[in-house]
Design brief:
Length: 111
């Protein structure tokens, strides 16, 4: 009986430690992703979206971003960014961004 209790206790500690490690690594990856999006924003979007140049919606103007997202839908906005618009080059100056990156950038700018 003692060896079963000891085995269960050891297994419980191992599972708890593994779960904690997974949770922390997820947090670190999430933080790294947020930092990458901020860097990508600064390198490709900030030139217009910080100042509102060429009528770009400014970063942080949540009301205007939410109105645009509601009006066009996120998939349509992503398609517009990828294809470009008269005032914005295709890809929004981010040639390595995926659709998910564009979504995250739009969400980042809306906050």
């Amino acid at each position: 009986m003692f060896s079963i209790s000891k085995l269960l206790s050891t297994s419980y500690r191992a599972i708890t430690a593994s779960s904690a490690a997974l949770l922390l690594s997820g947090i670190m990856i999430s933080s790294a992703g947020a930092a990458d999006i901020a860097t990508t924003y600064n390198n490709s979007c900030a030139a217009c979206h910080d100042s509102g140049a060429l009528n770009a919606i400014k970063k942080g103007d949540n009301a205007k971003w939410q109105q645009l997202i509601k009006q066009k839908s996120m998939p349509t906005l992503i398609k517009s960014v990828k294809g470009g618009m008269p005032q914005m080059p295709a890809g929004g100056l981010c040639d390595k961004c995926s659709d998910d990156d564009y979504r995250k950038l739009i969400e980042y700018m809306s906050k």
